[in-house]
Amino acid sequence: MKTMKISDFKNLFDKKSHSFFESLDLSNLLKTSLEYSFFSGGKRLRPWIIYNIGRYYDIDEEKLLKIGFATEIIHTASLIHDDLPAIDNSNYRRGNMSNHKKFSEWRAILTGDLGFILPFKIFAEFDDNESRYLNAFFSETILNLIEGETLDVAFEKNIIKPTKSDIENMYRKKTSALFEFSFACSPLLLNKKEEFNSLKKAGKNFGIAFQIYDDLKDIYGNFEDVGKDLNRDENKFTFLKILSPEKAKIYANNLFSETISILLSLKFIDFIEELQKIKSLIERK
Amino acid sequence: MKTMKISDFKNLFDKKSHSFFESLDLSNLLKTSLEYSFFSGGKRLRPWIIYNIGRYYDIDEEKLLKIGFATEIIHTASLIHDDLPAIDNSNYRRGNMSNHKKFSEWRAILTGDLGFILPFKIFAEFDDNESRYLNAFFSETILNLIEGETLDVAFEKNIIKPTKSDIENMYRKKTSALFEFSFACSPLLLNKKEEFNSLKKAGKNFGIAFQIYDDLKDIYGNFEDVGKDLNRDENKFTFLKILSPEKAKIYANNLFSETISILLSLKFIDFIEELQKIKSLIERK
Question: What total of structural domains would you count in chain B?
């Protein structure tokens, strides 16, 4: 099984996403603003993971693309809400104006709401048992994501004074949850419990590592590379408040290695190769 | 089958809702604010409809209460977002401080997000086919609700200049959608298509009538009765911008009568009696 390069996958996925959007019968006002944020430059890392792991399990490609689409929509929705003035107050996202800057705040709020619901409409198109499995795991995932975002803001506003393990818990919820879903949704569909648990763990480790690489980028990057206001994260509680950049990087690399071990035990060799390229890409950028 | 009075039902439902909340394993920060809005004085009209119509179909009461709970949660979530400064900017709701006034804006946004997801976690506890039916109908319902809210704000901000039929379309989406779901979810679970369609229509008519009664109350009520800032709706596009209060009331009464006819054809006699009492209550208050 040849794992698709992420750049090739992005072309395929974005093309497919346009046709998914067409089939959704959305009102124009929200469709425009959701599509704006959706197509504004994401790497499609989560859908790429879903698609390529799912192919090892021989799951229908159309289904994998649909699950990836649902995941990317909710990721988009949560970023739209995170950027709002009352939360992160970000004017830019991936080098473009954030949704509320472009379309005004009321539309950004309602566009996010729409994005939180759409995946469930998409999952209702699956078979009965697949649909229930997806809904159960996905709703659990998104509740974690929202809780992680809540902790993040609560740390920043000094409502909670976090320990290292609180920060790790926040990362796990805010960033890892959706990666856990992306790594593990294929064995879930086939009710392969052991592989589900292994891949969930791979997703968790990958997510935390990914978040740390992202934090490091915010320190060393420049606007062109990062595409958002830098040092906005000054008041954010990241590992970098507790560990030196060097130690944080070692910590992240260890977590990444654990992900690789799990993938190796499943013999996802081709996938590992591409994932390692993506890791270098994330670190460099 | 004896239809439960709405006041008795509210006691039962609120008690049950506390135990549902306990079982949901939510983070404290969002749980507190969601419960604040959830238990801040709703009539429980939608869960009452679900419960009492569902009993005609012999659906398990625990299931009906769960569906009612899910519906009331999303209703609460949508009101929390509607009240935000960027949308309706309401300081009060049902005589209490609105969520963002009490807990700050960032928590209100994330609490609403949580409320948009929770119902799907609840529906994942149903049987495979029930779960998929509920998810499909419910996600469609909430997409309509969000679109209705979008139209409402777009009219108010003069982005769209609405005709009477645009306003009716907005009412149908913003208010009727959840009533359609409440009236029709029981035959949906049993896959009784004809009764599903009839009850959906009953819910649609009831919802529009209900919204008009509510508009009339905003004109004639006082703060104690209505529990929110009056005349906030000045810039809102309601039927009262197009019809005199007398004509609007006749229009609403006709829609209500159509609802009754449908219920009569299904021989829901006892339910009709209680619904008529509720109608008088809504009009008086």
Answer: 1
Which pLDDT tens digit goes with each residue over A250-272?
999 999 999 999 999 999 999 99
Tell me B5's DSSP state: P
- What is the sign, positive or negative, of the torsion defined by CA atoms of B15, B63, A188, A82? negative
Q: Which of B113, B172, B173 is the best mutation test for A, with the most CBs of A within 10 A? A: B113
Please tell me what DSSP assigns to residue B160. S
The number of C-alpha atoms within 13 Å of A140 and in the hemisphere containing its C-beta is 13
- Tell me, yes or no, whether B1 lies in a domain: no
Are the Cβ atoms of A147 and B105 closer than 8 angstroms?
no
Strands B96-97, A92-93: pairing is: unpaired
Nearest-Cα distance to chain A for B160, in Å, is: 10
**Residue A161's domain is classified under what CATH number?**
1.10.600.10
Strands A96-97 and B92-93: unpaired
Per-residue CA distances from A215 to A53, A207, B105 (Å): 27, 12, 26
Residue A255 lies in a domain: yes
Which residues of chain A, if any, have pLDDT below 50? Answer: none
Summarised one tens digit per residue, pLDDT across range A124-152 is 999 999 999 999 999 999 999 999 999 99
**Within-domain flag for B128:** yes
Residue A23 lies in a domain: yes
Mean pLDDT of B254-281: 96
Number of CB atoms found within 10 A of residue B163's CB: 10
Range of the domain at A222: 6-284
- Determine, for residues A29 and B159 on separate chains, whether the beta-carbon distance falls below 8 Å: yes
Q: Which residue has the tokens 């008519």?
A: B205
Residue B26 with chain A: CB contacts under 8 Å: 143, 147
ipTM associated with this complex: 0.94
